## 1
Amino acid sequence: MLSISFDLLLLLLASGALAGILAGMFGIGGGLLLVPILAMAATAAGMDSASTMQVAVATAMASILLTSLGSMLAHHRRGAVRWRFLLRYAPAVMLGAWLGALQVEHVAGWLDGRLLIYVFVVFAVLSALQLMRRKTDIAVAPMPQAFTFRSLPDLPVALLIGQLSAWLGIGGGSMNAPYFHFRGLPMRTAVGTAAACGYPLALAASIGFALHHIEHSTWPLLGAVFWPGALLLGGMGMFTASLGARLAHSLPELLLKRLFALLLLGLALRLLWL
């Protein structure tokens, strides 16, 4: 019989709710928040260090299947998703994510899980610094009609973002949204398109993580995915993503980004002490 402690249940529900809000605000999947929380919970449950980050990354990615769905629908209702572009961009992201998910199992085994921790910490710190420096506001702007998929540079970038996202357990929005904005989309549309891209990315990566094999775990796992946790996290995230999308249209972007940057720095610092 499956049993989850009351403390873990509250942690998963609260984390999923916050991840959903962040997903709606920034088009991310919430993995930047969820991976260190899941890693700490797995460590407290007695999981060995080689499996801790593997399970944390896989579970966060599986939860994004639900969280990104809520975020995607919220942004679609506001007309902020470029679907025609995604039809060509998403397959490359999915391929990269699937390959990245398969690679994580071997990397975690080689380096006792520490490489994934260091990769996440470095990425979180760099993302926080970028958010602290960025001072542009989210503003409504005309959508450029010339924004179309280009094999170069979009194909290699999509493959790379998919692979890195699977390594980190994220939906790719923290990389896709800046890239789409750099390619010419208004920031809101870039965020919405990145949010929609998180679903196919998470789907491909979750299939790869389901093929992993974890031994001696007290948690019920599907491959490397702690599936009850993924359902709780993703369910709450899907519910609160629409609130995040509304906040993105009402609160000052600079304040939100700086608060998120401080959160990232705190999580990265805590993760180093696992």
## 2
Amino acid sequence: MGTIHEASQENRIMATVATPMSSPPGAPGWIPSPLYRMSVEEYEAMVASGLFPERKRVHLIRGLLVEKMTQNPPHAIADDLCGQELARALPGWYIRSAKPIRLPEQSSAPEPDRCVVRGPARQYRNRHPEPSEIVLVVEVSDSSLADDREVGAEVYGPAGLPVYWIVNLVDRQIEVQTDPGPSGYTSRTVYQAGATVPIVIDGQEIGRIAVETLLP
């Protein structure tokens, strides 16, 4: 892991990348370019140094700091339901909740709502899981639906994460994306009420979850 030794360098990086990708209401419409894009190692060093107060909820997406949205009640319940159903269907697997995963080639350390990874939890006591250890990633989406579809195309798919679920609260359906590649996922299947979603690990279906059990 890289280390940033000087506080002045840390502050310079923070000031450069803290600019949001889309300006909030009332902010200037023009943002100078190029923006500084940090590596996963630089981001982890900043986290370890305590530069981010606990009230600041950010994660690294394509080299830039992105503020995490606070979950509204439907989102929170769907997240919990998803965790419960995955744990029931996948005994012995490690189900992570809103914790970082390392995608160095994408300069990203996102914190998906749910993530299924290999090995016992203690295997990750000194590091976060990387693509070869991740078998399923899940985002619960309402107001973030467009962004969550984009992160699949721009981050999760190019990183090689094999299966990506979007629990779409807007349309009350589960969107399953598979066959990752440099341009994102090439296969997308939508499961609506009355259907069951296959749980596929290493190309093998090992169980199913009813759509209704994942929706609030």
